[in-house]
Write a structure and sequence with these properties.
By secondary structure, the protein is an alpha+beta fold. Among the domains are: about 40 residues; about 100 residues, Alpha-Beta Plaits (2-Layer Sandwich), CATH 3.30.70. A 4-stranded antiparallel β-sheet has the order 4-5-3-6, covered by helices on one side. A two-stranded antiparallel ribbon has the order 1-2. The radius of gyration is 27 Å and the shape is elongated. The chain starts with 8 loop residues before the first strand and ends with a helix. About 10% of the residues have low confidence.
Length: about 200
């Protein structure tokens, strides 16, 4: 029976993998990789199947590297102030009518009770930290409700619910603008695709 290979050790301890210090992470040179791929593609001695596999692997590697850099950038931005930390465990609910009362306590109790019913409906079981309306009162309109939950786990449960209730995570103004622009871009692209498909069908 062959002897087992001992684990690599550093200063008496087991050497652990560290992404930041790993030589394999930053050692990928895009220029050298591109040159090597070009040589493979131009070589008549390399089978076509190997060229296709190499190109696919490089494309996948490039995509993963982009995603990694994006995630590292997101992770580097840590929430610092209290409002940012609160936003990570908050959701915004629309469509709950406001109680027509001049008594503040009655309105707050009504909002707590209404949000509790919504959470019960979507099966998110937790105690609310606080509930409050966003913006100034407008006659004929019900303001959005900001709901602070005990942890970000309950925020994810509420946002991922697919039971006919519109709930989104609490967003900063910049995040709301980016999401709105992304939504508009999606609508425009979808419309263009529909028109393109319609033209293709009519042309046939």
């Amino acid at each position: 029976m062959p002897a087992s290979v001992p684990a690599a050790r550093s200063k008496g301890g087991v050497k652990r993998f560290c992404p930041a210090n790993s030589p394999s992470s930053p050692s990928i040179d895009p220029v050298r990789l591109t040159d090597a791929l070009k040589e493979v593609n131009e070589s008549p001695a390399v089978p076509a199947c190997v060229k296709n596999a190499s190109n696919s692997l490089v494309d996948e590697l490039t995509s993963l590297k982009r995603e990694r850099d994006k995630l590292l950038g997101i992770a580097a931005v840590q929430p610092t102030d209290e409002r940012d930390l609160e936003r990570l465990r908050s959701v915004v609910i629309s469509g709950i009518p406001e109680l027509d009362s001049t008594d503040i306590e009655s309105r707050v109790r009504y909002d707590f009770f209404s949000v509790g019913n919504v959470l019960f409906h979507i099966e998110v079981e937790c105690l609310l930290v606080t509930v409050y309306r966003l913006g100034r009162p407008i006659i004929g309109n019900s303001r959005l409700l900001e709901v602070v939950l005990p942890s970000s786990r309950f925020q994810r449960l509420a946002v991922n619910c697919q039971r006919g209730v519109y709930i989104r995570e609490s967003l900063s103004q910049e995040e709301r603008v980016r999401r709105r622009e992304a939504y508009r871009s999606l609508i425009v692209n979808s419309f263009q695709n529909v028109m393109l498909n319609t033209s293709s069908v009519q042309g046939n």
